[in-house]
Design goal:
The chain is mainly α and 134 residues long. It contains 7 helices and 2 strands, in the order H-E-E-H-H-H-H-H-H.
Length: 134
């Protein structure tokens, strides 16, 4: 909230504030739940949920991922180790090893690179010979 809005919100009395009224320390919703469910089912710390990256990469995102992690593409760009990327992707597809976080990082890098390359803002990686390494 902006400063003036925050001050205005603080000046509004409790009876005019939106939201549930407090009943015995619980909101109205909690008081109703308590009548029908054991308290342990709803009074506990928040928990996150897992994102099914592995299933998505084997399913609806598989073609997209395969394109971004394709051997020719990775080798042509020169930023990533082609053999390693190929091995990680093949292990994932075969089910031998599941590394969804690593694959997601690789995919986000590749998608970022594709976006900025198409905008003409990413310079090609210089060859090892050009920088005097080879």
């Amino acid at each position: 909230l902006e400063g003036a809005q925050l001050v205005g919100a603080q000046l509004v009395g409790d009876e005019r504030r939106p939201g549930p009224k407090i009943v015995g320390g619980l909101g109205q919703e909690m008081a109703v739940l308590e009548r029908y469910m054991p308290r342990g089912l709803f009074e506990r710390p928040k928990r996150g949920f897992g994102v099914p990256i592995s299933a998505w990469l084997r399913g609806p995102l598989g073609d997209w991922a395969g394109t971004l992690l394709g051997e020719r593409r990775v080798a042509g760009e020169g930023y990533l180790e082609t053999v390693a990327v190929r091995a990680i992707w093949r292990q994932h597809l075969s089910g031998r090893r599941d590394r969804p976080e690593l694959l997601w990082h690789l995919l986000m890098f590749q998608a970022w690179h594709e976006h900025w390359r198409s905008a003409g803002r990413v310079a090609p990686v210089p060859s090892a010979q050009a920088v005097g390494v080879a």
